[in-house]
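Handoff note, outgoing to incoming analyst
You'll be picking up this chain. Sequence as last confirmed:
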Amino acid sequence: MVDTLNKPGFEEIRPGVKVPAKETILTPRFYTTDFEEMAQMDISPNREELEAILEEFRTDYNRHHFVRDAEFEQSWDHIDGETRQLFIEFLERSCTAEFSGFLLYKELGRKLKNKNPLLAECFTLMSRDEARHAGFLNKAMSDFNMSLDLGFLTKNHKYTFFKPKFIFYATYLSEKIGYWRYITIYRHLEAHPEDRIYPIFRFFENWCQDENRHGDFFDAMMKAQPQFLNDWRAKLWCRFFLLSVFATMYLNDIQRADFYAAIGLNARDYDKYVIEKTNETSARVFPIVLDVENPEFYERLEVCIGNNEKLTAIVNSNQPKFLQLFQKLPYYLSNGWQLLRLYLMKPIEAASQQGVAH
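Most recent structure output, in case you need it:
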């Protein structure tokens, strides 16, 4: 029997199955691409590194890792109220992001099988990893009497088309920022086990190594396609994707600061550390990175956070919709202006960042 005494007020498709979060500019995206262009890519300039990465994927270091143990077999009703709701949202967002990767990689593996076998196998094995991650997260949601219908998500989510080079930029950053997010939480909870409110966090060390290997694959792919990295357009696009990923994470996480507080983290400090380390890591492949140590970077993001709080207040008001639209407009314009100014900030040439710690 489903326990409804401590269930947050989520909308459900059917009992215990959550309606997917409304799609916004800040929610995880599902991607598709030009499969023929991907199949025709010449990987010979970096084939040796790609073959080495494929061997790591075949080794499947985590094939026995994602197994729930006895610590999961208990009631989690003591995690209640807003913390419970925020934790379910964290699991949902993470599950959706991992499932998005699974769908993209699976389709790439299928479409490239007869045209580029090495790439096809790499994508297929990465889809295996992402499926494990998504399934593990969805099972964790069920401990809180909630889950996602991943089949429904597959059919009803909007897909964003990106050309292969944009897929490389976006997924590389997604995997690398995922590594730094997971390992930072793991290291914090290893040092402060009293803050580990749920056993899934014990799995993050091995888990993030999957993310790291996936990121290394996209690093190697971009180096095999130097035209994606060595001109002025590449610099503009790298700035765009770095800013998009960093701003999205920061704005999302500060909205959910209470979740991070529940596991003993300050959301702002956590995000700044993750952004700094992801920025450093990106300098190994991207021609430029962002100047995230410039105080202006976070000052402008904080303006966006204040704007978003005002937008939320307007949405929750009883004002007519047409009036809300006029009330929202100045804050939308302000957010756009802040992000434009961040994009135009002088970046850092990546050559000056080489040799940073991993």
